[in-house]
Structure formats: structure tokens, C-alpha cells
Design brief:
214 residues, alpha/beta, Rossmann fold, 2 domains, six-stranded mixed β-sheet, 8 strands, 19% strand, binds zinc ion
């Protein structure tokens, strides 16, 4: 009976892989599923106003489930794995390592509704892994923008116009800026943030997304 109870408890409390549902590794993402994420080459995906935009991987099956799990299904534990994937790619880039990390902010109402900013969770883990400093106060989102996926490039730019505001007093001096996001599509979000930072005289910027949709 005791044995039965223990195995029952094991079954209930053992962590299952969110992707393949197996529990043998007792983790939210088993090494098999993690290793199925493919990394991109170390080249910048795009350069905008002299800012390099890097994307760690592709937005394919497992990556989609990983990002959507954190973003929409409250699987906060998965932030660790997205951060791990990003930090491995980041370390291979061998950049200056002299950054403050800025997760793309959400509009306050949206963040309240969701309960958290998923990219902030990823950024926290990412900073632990890389030793970089987190800065969640430098840039605020002041416009409740429409979801971008239905819009074309021109509409995206219009949608994101004046969406962000920079509070320069929150800038950590002597550190460059590393903006991180989950999905890179046309780059409009990064562009809008870069423009706003440039307006405030901040020019040493790098952008980094977990995955590229194209
Ligand atoms: Zn798995």
C-alpha cells in the first residue's frame, strides 16, 4: 500500500516535459526536446541604424510551443529554457559583455491582465546565466498596440509609432543596451525602441530575439 502511494505521489508530483510529456528526467523540458531546438548562424539577421539584430533560433515546432507556453499558457518555468537557449547563442557571439538587458516592455494594462511580462521572466534568467544587469525601467510602453501578426510592415510601423518612452535617468551609465524579445518578424518593435533610444542620445545598442519567424 505504501509503495503504491509513493508511486502515485511520484506520478502526480514528478515534473513532466511540457513538450513530449515524458517524466523520466523530472524536468519541464527534457534534454531531447531541448536539443531539438536549432540555433541560427552567428550573423546579424538585420542591421538598423547601426544596431545589430541577432536571432538565436527559428520559430519552428518546439520553439513555438516554448514561446507560446510562457507567453499565453502561464508556463513560467519554461522561461529558464528560453533564457538558456538565448544565453548559449549570446555567449558564442563573444560580444563586449558590457550590457544592461532590457526586456521588451508590455503596456501596463496588458501586463496586469496577463499577470506578468513573459520577457521579463526570460530576462531575469538570462541575466543570471550571463552575469549581465537587468534594467526594466529604462523603457516604458505607453501605447496599447494592436497584435502585430495581422499587420503588414507599414501598418506595424504605424502601430508602434510613439509606443515607447525612454526615461534616461534610469540608464545604467557605462553599460550598453541589449534589448531582448521572443519573436523577430519584421523588426518593427526593435526599430521603434531603437528610434526612441537614439532620440535620447543612446546609441550603443544591440537587439536579440529568441527566434525568427522567417
Ligand atoms: Zn521532452
Amino acid at each position: 500500500m505504501k509503495k503504491f502511494l509513493i508511486s502515485l505521489l511520484d506520478l502526480i508530483y514528478k515534473k513532466r516535459c511540457y513538450f513530449c510529456k515524458k517524466s523520466y528526467e523530472n524536468s519541464f523540458m527534457c534534454s531531447n526536446c531541448y536539443n531539438s531546438l536549432n540555433k541560427n548562424s552567428l550573423q546579424a539577421k538585420m542591421i538598423y541604424n547601426n544596431v545589430n539584430i541577432f536571432c538565436a533560433g527559428k520559430y519552428e515546432k518546439t520553439m513555438q510551443k516554448l514561446i507560446r507556453g510562457i507567453k499565453y499558457h502561464k508556463q513560467k518555468e519554461l522561461a529558464f529554457y528560453q533564457a538558456k537557449f538565448m544565453s548559449e547563442y549570446y555567449k558564442n557571439l563573444k560580444l563586449t559583455n558590457n550590457y544592461q538587458v532590457i526586456p521588451v516592455p508590455l503596456f501596463s494594462k496588458r501586463q496586469k491582465h496577463r499577470g506578468y511580462n513573459h520577457m521579463e521572466l526570460v530576462a531575469e534568467e538570462f541575466c543570471k546565466m550571463t552575469g549581465l544587469k537587468l534594467n526594466t525601467k529604462l523603457i516604458k510602453r505607453i501605447k496599447d498596440t494592436k497584435p502585430q501578426y495581422k499587420l503588414n510592415k507599414k501598418e506595424r510601423i504605424e502601430n508602434l509609432k510613439d509606443a515607447f518612452i525612454v526615461n534616461k535617468s534610469e540608464l545604467f551609465p557605462n553599460l550598453d543596451v541589449l534589448i531582448i524579445d521572443d519573436i523577430f518578424t519584421t523588426g518593427s518593435t526593435f526599430e521603434s525602441m531603437i528610434t526612441e533610444l537614439n532620440k535620447n542620445g543612446i546609441h550603443n545598442i544591440t537587439c536579440f530575439a529568441a527566434a525568427t519567424a522567417n
